[in-house]
Amino acid sequence: QEKVQQSPESLIVPEGAMSSLNCTFSNSASQSIWWYQQHPGKGPEALISIFSNGNKKEGRLTVYLNRASLHVSLHIRDSQPSDSAVYLCAVSMAQGGRALIFGTGTTVSVSP
Amino acid sequence: EAAVTQSPRSKVAVTGGKVTLSCHQTNNHDYMYWYRQDTGHGLRLIHYSYVADSTEKGDIPDGYKASRPSQENFSLILELASLSQTAVYFCASSEFRGNEQYFGPGTRLTVL
Q: Which residues are registered as beta bridge partners of B73?
């Protein structure tokens, strides 16, 4: 059964600093890796996804994927108070009924 | 315009009672999902559907039924609500399996 683990559980960063989040998954047959952002009282929203080994950059976000080590990281440059949220890592499986397997999330708090 | 809506947004139910949670999407997506979110467990898939009049079990289907009467509508039914089903429930839709999922705002269910 696929497992998705995230670290750290919570993170406090000063405004303008880099936020770095980690995610490990258990199945190398996984397809895309997604990062979702969830603000309190809201549903998750997709931020960025990656399929191929290497990195992908979109605006202030950079994602690094290493399939050999089953690890993906999300880095948020120039963190803003509006980035304060829970970040969920989700793995898309190639087979089986489950489309996305979610981790338990990292809570990011950006202090002004 | 919100593409995935849920009703009700919150509900208090009594143990042993019947609860129906509704979801409506205007994305024209084939796939729809029901998740529950609990502290420490992240998002867990209850049921999903990829075509009207058909539903599939997810990871934690016990105690829940689902109904997909049309492409736009997907319901989650708790025939005999229990205390352990107190949680926030999210509906989501996606164009293809494994694609980005679009989430509704959630329903907070409290079973007393």
A: B24
Distance CA B64, CA B60 (A): 8
Nearest to B103 among A44, A92, A93 (CB): A44
Q: Does A46 touch chain B (CB under 8 A)?
A: yes
Q: Which residues of A touch B25 (CB under 8 A)?
A: none
Q: What is the pLDDT of residues A17-71, one digit of tens each?
A: 999 999 999 877 777 899 999 999 999 999 999 998 999 999 999 999 999 999 9
Does A43 contact B57 at a Cβ distance shorter than 8 Å?
no
Start-end of H helices in B1-112: none
Which chain A residue lies closest to B46 (C-alpha atoms)?
Answer: A98
Length of chain A as a residue count: 112
Query: 């981790």: which residue's tokens?
Result: A103
CA geometry: angle B35, A89, B101, nearest 5 deg: 50
- Put simply, the answer to whether B42 touches A45 (Cβ < 8 Å) is no
Whether residue A8 is preceded by a cis peptide bond, meaning omega within 30 degrees of 0, is yes
Residue type, B32: M
